[in-house]
Amino acid sequence: MGSWKYARPIFLWKDDLMFQKELEDYARLVDSYLAQFPWPTGTLTESMNYSLSAGGKRIRPVLALAAAHAVGGEGEDILPAVCALELIHTYSLIHDDLPAMDNDDYRRGRLANHKVFGEGQAILAGDALLTYAFELLAQPMSGVDSQRQLRAVREVAQAAGPEGMVGGQMLDLEAEEKQLNLAELERVHRLKTGAILVVAARLGAILAGGTEEKIEALTRYAQAIGLAFQIKDDILDLESDSETLGKPAHSDLRQHKSTYPSLMGLAGAKLELKIKTDEAHAALTVLGERAVFLHELADYIAQRKY
Amino acid sequence: MGSWKYARPIFLWKDDLMFQKELEDYARLVDSYLAQFPWPTGTLTESMNYSLSAGGKRIRPVLALAAAHAVGGEGEDILPAVCALELIHTYSLIHDDLPAMDNDDYRRGRLANHKVFGEGQAILAGDALLTYAFELLAQPMSGVDSQRQLRAVREVAQAAGPEGMVGGQMLDLEAEEKQLNLAELERVHRLKTGAILVVAARLGAILAGGTEEKIEALTRYAQAIGLAFQIKDDILDLESDSETLGKPAHSDLRQHKSTYPSLMGLAGAKLELKIKTDEAHAALTVLGERAVFLHELADYIAQRKY
């Protein structure tokens, strides 16, 4: 998708294959780190690993690594902190799927954690992943200033906590079967999924020593792609089929959920997606050539098929 | 209770009233800090506060403050980190009480969180308390070295996570209706309740700038009072009545739980309590006069009526 308001500098054009390879390289780096945790053997570890190894796009750690690169750092050193974001994401999925929450039996085509290990065990696996995430965030990381690292811990906790993700999940729980207006819908998304994406970008930039100006630029970028991601999700649910998506299509309609298309119409949602994608590109200006991957990532989110 | 193997120096004798007052002063300091969190209004905050304000002995923050004092520090500066321990303890109680876990409808004489707010909400309140605890642990605290603070974050996460409290809770869940031997019972206690008590003492000492020798001494002290606490709990369940305890007496017997008295006999459990209390006193030697309160706390745990 080309940008319409903000032209992208010519040097940013790269072919899609190269982007795909970089995306996979980042994800592989994350996966290899995730595979080597020295957890004790037992049901708890099995249950944590079951959900952690279920795949997914690793979008949060990838975003953090790309943000670190964009401000001039390299990713290997900050892998523990970056992977903590995937643990937090995974814990939130495990708890979301519980009978007392969204009551989903399947996740990414496999049985949900609580269907395999039991509800009590799933609650504990989520608790353990969340807690271990903070152990990772506080790991010694070479070349990272300890004041900045403490700030990163604090910001991740804030983004994941009552004023962020958990707060959004509570709003979502309370909004079941209720029609939301656009402002309310955006608030749920901003808290439930947006806050962690934003902190992923900030975390990478903070740990890699980025300036406040660059941290703020990445914040605006992540806010924009966070909403773009959600709008695209809503559009795909409407326009795609279950086989392509790997999950039931048209489920928003069946569940009478408020979505961008239901509130703005399909054309309105597509326009909004374009606006958010353009905002994402624009936010990156200050980062120059080191942000190539992030430009491609914004397009990828808007163009993905599932 | 006097010490039989290790005589306590004469200057440590203080009257019980003075200890009670100090205990209350510490707890009041904690309560006043807990009462002023700037959480957003709504069900989530209500639910978090419901459990957080349910009282309890505040033993973990008190232990941390006393440990900080024992190594030469003062407590006010490290209150955020110290109170994080109470949030972690409270989250663990909320999740423990859930139907999928211990299925308790009451806690400290009040309805359990999930009975008042619903299961999904209780899961989220626990998640939010745990997450906010790490925000507190990473707060700027005047006079605290940031390397030490990161170590404290890491140690608390480790003590609360899969190799600590959550791991112990999983063992406990798997041990239901199963007879444990003494080694297994101690392992459950060491992980489920001991790890957080130990890290409370370490946290106070680490943040207040204590030497490794003093941190280790406080570790041994906390290990001993942790087990003493559990042994005393088991003895009280057997010897006391429901009115005094504020919870049903003889419940271990009814639930066929493995306890110290069931595995060592009542006399054996009382001897073990004395041994652990003596170990606690002995561990404090290196701390001298600044550990007066901790000596009294060990006796208080062994002598308490509920």
From TrEMBL, chains A, B:
<dbReference type="GO" id="GO:0005737">
    <property type="term" value="C:cytoplasm"/>
</dbReference>
<keyword id="KW-0808">Transferase</keyword>
<dbReference type="GO" id="GO:0004337">
    <property type="term" value="F:(2E,6E)-farnesyl diphosphate synthase activity"/>
</dbReference>
<dbReference type="Pfam" id="PF00348">
    <property type="entry name" value="polyprenyl_synt"/>
</dbReference>
<dbReference type="GO" id="GO:0046872">
    <property type="term" value="F:metal ion binding"/>
</dbReference>
<comment type="similarity">
    <text>Belongs to the FPP/GGPP synthase family.</text>
</comment>
<keyword id="KW-0479">Metal-binding</keyword>
<protein>
    <recommendedName>
        <fullName>Farnesyl diphosphate synthase</fullName>
        <ecNumber>2.5.1.10</ecNumber>
    </recommendedName>
</protein>
<dbReference type="InterPro" id="IPR000092">
    <property type="entry name" value="Polyprenyl_synt"/>
</dbReference>
<dbReference type="InterPro" id="IPR008949">
    <property type="entry name" value="Isoprenoid_synthase_dom_sf"/>
</dbReference>
<dbReference type="InterPro" id="IPR053378">
    <property type="entry name" value="Prenyl_diphosphate_synthase"/>
</dbReference>
<keyword id="KW-0460">Magnesium</keyword>
<dbReference type="GO" id="GO:0016114">
    <property type="term" value="P:terpenoid biosynthetic process"/>
</dbReference>
<dbReference type="InterPro" id="IPR033749">
    <property type="entry name" value="Polyprenyl_synt_CS"/>
</dbReference>
<keyword id="KW-0414">Isoprene biosynthesis</keyword>
